[in-house]
Write a structure and sequence with these properties.
Elements lengths: L2 H54 L2 H11 L4 H29 L5 H16 L2 H7 L3 H21 L3 H26 L7 H22 L1 H12 L2 H39 L10 H31 L4 H12 L1 H16 L3 H22 L6 H24 L4
Helix pairs in contact: 1-3, 1-4, 1-6, 1-9, 1-10, 2-3, 2-5, 2-10, 3-4, 3-7, 3-8, 4-7, 6-7, 8-14, 9-10, 9-14, 10-11, 10-12, 10-13, 11-12, 11-13, 12-15, 13-15, 14-15
Length: 401
């Protein structure tokens, strides 16, 4: 089996463990806590994911590239890993404190669960296992912990808050074990503020455009929650759960492509012919793959909601189709933005992200009173499509496609 295929399978297995529990327990949550309860649970996950993104600071993308840059220098690699993890821990505590102080979303137990969830999501550090091509330990740990969490949910989680708490503890436990594992693997490394400074300098533009993009989901969830339509919140999050799972699984392929492309890029230098890496061929294959994923997401989402609500109105079918459509540009954007970032063109992506997301936010605040609930479709679908078009144009202008 080739190293490329083995890496894809390993990363996919790791992602599968992370998402298999939410998918397996979805029928249980929908039955035990109704569609509204699932909406609240997904809202907590959305906020937790956003916080973990903030303090991760693009390490899941840049970390692999940095370790490839330092290839052959084991001490420097270990120092970078230790320095990056130290920075993340400090940033996590800052984010957690700020969130607890300013949040006005739910009860104190939900605040606590959001913090626990975000710790687990961010401290998994899957980028490290991708760079080292060593997944067995973390896959086994994640699988055991998630199975135990499912058993606890089945027998003890008869209240929504207890269910959310059990899931949060399971996530945090995996993150903590991963953190200890990484620390032991890099015992020779020392905290280097030079590594932290270079790392922060490298992610400056990428962090801005990724942050603007990540902000959309919390705003949409908050807008739906504020509207008082709990069923719509549930339907939206059921569909977006499958979209997120699909995009995350697809990220396994894209991350491995990023690893292979960056190895070629950094080994032969900046003046190489980038077309040799076959970016156009990779992009066309990803496009075909994303269309297949879109069809699967729409079908599975429809069946899941139909089993819960019975008959579904045409409007909700339209929403399911529209939300699912977002998976196509979302998958392509992961590849395009990582590629553009690698060739040091992140400033352009910042402009694309900001412009597209500003248009989405305008649609939320201006169109919500004129076209109730349709503004959600604009925000979900419009933004990633605009980003895809801009990124393709950027690469075309550089003769990379």
């Amino acid at each position: 089996m080739s190293s490329f295929l083995r890496s894809i399978i390993s990363v996919s297995a790791l992602k599968l463990v992370d998402y298999i529990v939410p998918i397996i327990i979805m029928p249980l949550v929908l039955t035990r806590f109704n569609l509204e309860g699932y909406g609240v649970y997904s809202y907590v996950l959305t906020i937790s994911t956003f916080i973990s993104f903030i303090y991760d600071a693009c390490l899941n993308t840049v970390g692999v590239q940095q370790l490839n840059k330092l290839k052959g220098n084991e001490i420097a690699q270990q120092s970078f890993v230790i320095s990056a993890i130290f920075f993340k821990l400090v940033f996590f505590f800052v984010c957690a404190i700020v969130f607890i102080i300013i949040s006005e979303t739910a009860g104190k137990s939900d605040y606590f669960c959001v913090v626990i969830f975000s710790f687990g999501f961010g401290m998994l550090n899957s980028w490290y296992y991708i760079a080292k091509d060593n997944f067995r330990f973390i896959i086994i740990v994640s699988l055991v912990v998630k199975i135990l969490a499912v058993l606890f949910v089945l027998y003890y989680a008869f209240e929504l808050h207890m269910f959310i708490f059990i899931q949060a503890i399971a996530s945090a436990l995996v993150g903590l074990i991963s953190l200890i594992k990484i620390k032991n693997d890099n015992r020779l490394g020392k905290i280097s503020f030079r590594h932290i400074k270079n790392y922060l300098k490298n992610i400056k533009h990428m962090y801005i455009y990724s942050g603007v993009n990540a902000l959309i989901q919390p705003i949409i969830n908050s807008a739906i929650l504020a509207s008082g339509n709990a069923s719509l919140l549930g339907i939206y999050n059921v569909v977006m759960r499958f979209v997120a799972v699909s995009v995350t699984f697809s990220n396994s392929i894209i991350t491995v492509l990023n690893k292979c492309n960056s190895e070629v890029f950094y080994s032969v230098g900046h003046k190489t012919n980038y077309v040799e890496v076959k970016y156009r061929s990779q992009l066309l294959k990803l496009l075909f793959y994303s269309i297949v994923v879109f069809i699967c997401v729409a079908a599975i989402s429809y069946v899941s909601i139909y089993m819960t609500k019975g008959e579904i109105s045409r409007f909700f079918i339209f929403l399911i189709f529209s939300f699912s459509l977002a998976v196509i540009p979302s998958i392509l954007n992961q590849y395009l933005t990582q590629l553009i970032h690698m060739i040091h063109s992140s400033k352009n992506i910042v402009k694309y992200e900001i412009c597209s997301n500003v248009l989405s936010l305008i649609s939320i605040f201006l169109f919500s009173s004129l076209f109730p609930y349709y503004y959600i479709v604009y925000a979900v679908v419009l933004s990633p499509i605009i980003i895809t078009i801009c990124c393709l144009w950027d690469l075309k202008c550089k003769n990379l496609l």
